[in-house]
């Protein structure tokens, strides 16, 4: 029998969440580096370079890998012989650990959790509550797995009830391209098979806690149908040519994890949940001897990557850029931005639309005419920072507002993560605007290009307020030009065809 003290449990949860905010799992870094070395698409290679550089910077600076520091998921396996020296419930102890981790003044993490999700959507201010899965098992320890899952990847989760005779591989290959790149590939796919609908989803999420070992499986060969599926799905997905950040390339996923469970004879539940380039999870075991703190990794395991800016890169002054200039920008072109831009996410776009429709007009300082807006919700700054990690959020969420905003404000350009949907593309073409893409999963690196920041409107929205950033050489890619052509369509199509040609030649 072991006695688990309340303070030890809370401290261990807090430590794990702080740790995963700035340390990637070493297995993930090695897998991305291997993909980087193999990659033939320059756009995808550049994106992975930024992800790897950002990861090392975060490990050294102990600041978040991504501005979206995630919704916390915890898997607990509590031994039947465990006793608790505690006056809080297990769930309350988990949430106290989350609260302390996210409010840690040395490394403030972004509070992204909203209560009353179908109503007021008010921020809980401390990222609680966590999503907790508890199981009572044999033994006298408490086994804990924690993860922090970003909304961009969580929103791409898929669930289907297939017929027992249907092909799982075919469903994945058909479904993955519909997910776009908002989940920030390269990453992992977690797949749950069997049980019931909700069981499949939990299995998929839990599978993402496992280490990357697909390369070992290739060497030893599959021993059962689940292992065969892992290899089949990984090869089929990478053959789609989606690539890093959806720009087209050889590697979309670095591993496929699968957990299964017995199911009804008439059913084949399948859940698929992607993990993004900000893969964050940790594991610890409490046995009554004290708190279980994470051991820092060896930074020599991080590759020394340099991202060179070529002479042909276009440098743009946001304070003087004109519509004639943006009309010359080409999809896939790298641009370095300097000057001032405004920021705004879902909540800010909603308020902008409401204020214009009401006739009240926009607040002072929110003049969008011939300006650029950056879809971002930054982490609060610490120490001498101008702003905390400030990577882009998924742009498609703003598509429903894009035509209205372009029509009524004269906005010239937008900066975000991943592709634009059909509605967004048509609005960009119609108004001859432009959309630029920053790399998801490189938030700390991006923040270093921000030299000044101030809140200009809606401070009550917290991280969703409108800020004005002044940037210096912020790297972005022209994702959609003024004609509506999207690199997220042309890039994957090119690389899918090229991969198919290579397969044919090899065979």
Characterize the biggest β-sheet. 5 strands, mixed, barrel
Radius of gyration: 23 Å
Q: How many strand segments?
A: 19
Structural class of the helices, strands and pairings?
alpha/beta
Per the principal axes of the C-alpha atoms, what is the gross shape?
globular
Give a verbal description of the structure.
The chain has 507 residues and is of the alpha/beta class. Among the domains are: 151-277, no CATH class; 314-491, fumarase (Alpha-Beta Barrel), CATH 3.20.130. It has helices spanning 6-22, 26-38, 42-61, 90-102, 151-154, 168-175, 197-207, 214-220, 225-238, 323-326, 346-358, 399-409, 422-431, 443-447, 487-506; strands at residues 2-5, 71-79, 82-85, 114-115, 122-123, 131-137, 142-149, 158-162, 187-194, 253-261, 268-275, 281-286, 314-317, 334-343, 372-374, 413-416, 434-437, 450-457, 466-480. α13 (422-431) links the parallel β16 and β17 (434-437). The longest helix has 20 residues, at 42-61. The mean pLDDT is 96.
Question: Which features characterize this protein?
Answer:
alpha/beta; 19 strands; four-stranded mixed beta sheet; single chain; five-stranded mixed barrel; 15 helices; 507 residues; 24% strand; fumarase; globular
Summarize the structure.
The chain is of the alpha/beta class and 507 residues long.
